[in-house]
Design a protein that fits this description.
99 residues, mainly beta, four-stranded antiparallel β-sheet, 1 helix, 49% strand, elongated, Zinc_ribbon_15, Zinc-ribbon family protein
Length: 99
């Protein structure tokens, strides 16, 4: 007897602040990756389906994304913010004229 089937895995890739398309609130959205893998004798062997989704943490609305869109969102979430932190001096790239 051969036992085979599929199993789903859910990975949270990032937490991003976006404006929700359903509720209109600027809220945190989780960027998730759903992978369905083929298994043989309860051992996952290879992925057969991969989907990317953002989910609003305020209203729970989910939106499916392409792989390219998900990669762009994940890259933007990993970039450091360009604004100076509170209490830190801002860095200016100008020179003062010498007299």
């Amino acid at each position: 007897m051969i036992i085979f089937g599929t199993k789903g895995y859910l990975y949270t890739l990032a937490m991003i602040t976006l404006v929700c398309g359903r509720c209109g609130n600027p809220a945190a959205h989780s960027l998730k990756k759903r992978v369905t893998k083929f298994s043989l004798f309860f051992v996952p062997l290879f992925p057969i389906n991969t989907k990317y989704v953002t989910q609003c943490t305020f209203c729970g609305a989910a939106q499916q994304l392409s792989k390219e869109q998900a990669e762009q969102l994940q890259a933007s979430a990993q970039q450091p913010h360009q604004q100076p932190q509170y209490g830190q001096p801002a860095v200016h790239d100008h020179q003062h004229p010498t007299a």
